[in-house]
Structure formats: structure tokens, C-alpha cells
Design a protein that fits this description.
Belongs to the HpaH/HsaA monooxygenase family. By secondary structure, this protein is of the alpha+beta class. The protein contains twelve helices and ten strands. A four-stranded mixed beta sheet has the order 1-4-5-8. A four-stranded antiparallel beta sheet has the order 2-3-7-6, with no helix packed on it. A two-stranded antiparallel ribbon has the order 9-10. Helix 1 runs antiparallel to helix 3 and helix 4 runs parallel beside helix 8.
């Protein structure tokens, strides 16, 4: 616990440096090696890593709190830190040999990912043949392994399984395709695989992660590793968006304290009651999003620590609150941007970057509100909600 607290303090101390590097990350279209090394030095990437590999196996709320702080300084850095940081949690669910392959010689080894099953998977003796192209692998420049989603064909048109496959850098190439309007600094390039063999132990079924019964739990017995993938990973996407909106809020309030509205006869913006209301609404949205996240994660961890089953209704609520958290953060950043005046559209103003980054994160597939909210509604009406367990 003390180690995780020290990590959070270290991240706080690093925040001003990351804020100063935000424009550089955007211009370079990737996070600097220096920033990744600085985050690693705080221990951030070890927060969700098993203790037997030098990790802190910390409460997810601590991890997400750090992500929010990082993203408030630089949206791209927060996004990369979040998705790369959660991979240490997922690898802990794999068979032990996979964990040894990655962390045996260097526990600080990092992994990127791309979960959309866009490649081709063929089951063979001892494992799988993997080939194809996967997109949006954030931070892949800084990783030496990758986690790729793939569907294992069954008989006929029915998939046999949906799995994650773990590949070393020698088995893939990275193609630079990342030219975007938002999250420009994430370096979320394509992963290309040409008929690589992946041994069976370097794959993990999404069905097992949904049931919270994975091979890695035999050795990694902490409650953290009894949380479903479908409850941890979605907040890995929403949290940096909340962080970006929080950074926008801080920048907006600081700016508006000094701003004079020329169009309104020189009235100070801070004294405008309409501006005050917009700021209050944005603050309320951000607080609501964050309070729901922390409440959900705390309840999940409390039940996991007690060895109790995680009820379907709670898991559905986690997904409901996750997509609503993204919606509230976008609502807040939109309101702040609209309240900032014409100066906010200049490329030198941080508001436009926070706005673009948050909206770029919003289009991630996990943020589909109608799909998640429909599942919650089905659960309330007593209908099947099997998809929500993934």
C-alpha cells in the first residue's frame, strides 16, 4: 500500500513536466522515450503488476487516479499510460510461462495491444498461426510485445473462441499510419503479422476472463486478478478522457480568471454569471463521472477481497457508469470549450487540444453508449445479458 502511495506522489511530481511536453508529443505524433522512462521510474507501470514480478498489485482506484492526473497534463500521455499500464494486469491472467517469457529477464518490459479481431487465426498443433493487420496499437513504439485479439474459427460459421494472442516484437512490424485530428501523440500505429506461430500458452480466452477463471490466477492470487476484463478495461479508456476534461477545466478556469470579454463592454469573464453556471455544470459532470468510477471499483474490489461472486447487476452497472462517464466528460469539455471564446481555437491554446483529444478518445468502440445502456436495460427487465460479461 505504501509503495502505491509513493507511486501516486511520484506521478504528481511528474505532472508539470508532462504538461510542458504535451505539444511536443502532439508534434512528434508519439510520446517521448524520456516521458515513458520518467513514468516507469515512478513505478506507475508496476501498479497492476503481480508482486512476484516486483509489482504493487494495487487497487485499481489508485491506478486510475494516476491515469486521470497524467491525462489532465497531456491527453496522449494519459491515454498511452492507461492502456499500456493495464496490460500488466492482463498478462497476470495468462499461464505462468507467458509471464516468464515477458518479465523473466526484465520485469519492466512493456506491451501494447490491438484487440479488434481483424487478423486471421488458424489452430495448429501446439498453438496458432497468426497473420494480418491490427490497427490503433497505442504506444507500440515503446513496447517489445503486443497483445492481439483474434477469433479462432470453429466448424462452419460459428467462432470457436475469441482470444488474446501474445507476440514478441520479432514476430511483427509496426507501420506508421498515425495522422489524426486528436490523440496525435499516442503513436497508435498498425501492427502487421506475417504468419507467426503463437504457442498455446501465449493465448488467453476472453471467455475465461469473463468468468474470472484464468490460468494465471493459480499463482497471482490477489483480489485484483479476480476482477473481470469487462470491468477493468473499459475504464482504462474512460479514465483518460475524464482526465483530459479535467485538464481542460483547470486550463479554462485559470484562463477565465484573467479574461476580459471585449464583446461585452470589457466585462471580466469571471464575473459573468452565465460563465459561472457553465463552469459549475462542467465541474458537476466531472465529479459525477469520477465518483461513479471510484464507487464501482471499490465495490468490485470489496467483493473480490471477500472471495464473493461478482453479481451480473454490478457488472452491468460498471459498464453503464463507464459509458456515462465518457458522456459526462465530453459534455463538460464541450461546455468549457464553448465558454472559452474565440482565443480557444488558436493552436497555441491548450483548450483546443484537450477538446480534440477527448473527442478522439470518445470514438473508441468501448464508448458505444447505446450498446452498453441497452445491456443494462435488458438486465433490469430480466433478459439475457451474456455480452455484458465479456
Amino acid at each position: 500500500m505504501q509503495g502505491a502511495i509513493a507511486v501516486a506522489r511520484g506521478v504528481q511530481e511528474l505532472v508539470p513536466v508532462l504538461r510542458d511536453r504535451a505539444q511536443e508529443a502532439e508534434d512528434r505524433r508519439t510520446i517521448s522515450t524520456e516521458s515513458i522512462k520518467s513514468l516507469a521510474a515512478t513505478g506507475f507501470f508496476r501498479l497492476l503488476q503481480p508482486a512476484r514480478f516486483g509489482g504493487y498489485q494495487a487497487d485499481p482506484v489508485t491506478f486510475f487516479g494516476c491515469v486521470r492526473d497524467i491525462a489532465a497534463a497531456c491527453g496522449s500521455t494519459g491515454w498511452v499510460a492507461s492502456v499500456i499500464g493495464v496490460h500488466n494486469w492482463q498478462l497476470a491472467l495468462f499461464p505462468d510461462q507467458a509471464q516468464q517469457d515477458v518479465w523473466g529477464d526484465d520485469p519492466g518490459t512493456l506491451m501494447s495491444s490491438s484487440y479488434a479481431p481483424t487478423g486471421r487465426i488458424i489452430a495448429v498443433d501446439g498453438g496458432y498461426r497468426v497473420s494480418g493487420r491490427w490497427s490503433f496499437s497505442s504506444g507500440c513504439e515503446h513496447a517489445s510485445w503486443v497483445l492481439l485479439g483474434g477469433i479462432v474459427p470453429g466448424e462452419g460459421e460459428t467462432p470457436a473462441d475469441f482470444r488474446t494472442f501474445l507476440l514478441p516484437a520479432d514476430d511483427y512490424t509496426v507501420e506508421d499510419v498515425w495522422h489524426t485530428v486528436g490523440l496525435r501523440g499516442t503513436g497508435s500505429n498498425d501492427i502487421v503479422v506475417a504468419d507467426a506461430f503463437v504457442p498455446a500458452y501465449r493465448s488467453l480466452s476472453f471467455g475465461d476472463t469473463a468468468r474470472c477463471v484464468c490460468p494465471g490466477q493459480e499463482l497471482n492470487t490477489a483480489p485484483l486478478y479476480r476482477i473481470p476484463y469487462g470491468s477493468i478495461f473499459p475504464y482504462t479508456i474512460t479514465t483518460p478522457i475524464i482526465g483530459m476534461a479535467t485538464g481542460a477545466y483547470d486550463a479554462h478556469v485559470s484562463y477565465m480568471r484573467e479574461r476580459v470579454r471585449a464583446a461585452y463592454a470589457g466585462v471580466r469573464a469571471a464575473e459573468d454569471p452565465y460563465s459561472q453556471v457553465r463552469v459549475a455544470r462542467a465541474a458537476a459532470d466531472l465529479d459525477a463521472a469520477w465518483l461513479a468510477l471510484t464507487a464501482d471499483m471499490t465495490e468490485l474490489m470489496t467483493l473480490a477481497s471477500a472471495g464473493e461472486k461478482l453479481p451480473a447487476r454490478l457488472r452491468l452497472r460498471v459498464r453503464r457508469d463507464q459509458v456515462r462517464g465518457t458522456e459526462l466528460a465530453i459534455q463538460a469539455v464541450d461546455r468549457l470549450f464553448e465558454n472559452s471564446g474565440g482565443r480557444a481555437i488558436y493552436s497555441s491554446h491548450p483548450m483546443q487540444r484537450y477538446w480534440r483529444d477527448a473527442h478522439a478518445g470518445r470514438v473508441h468502440a468501448i464508448n458505444d453508449p447505446e450498446r452498453a445502456l441497452s445491456m443494462y436495460g435488458r438486465g433490469e427487465f430480466g433478459l439475457s445479458v451474456a455480452d455484458a460479461m465479456m
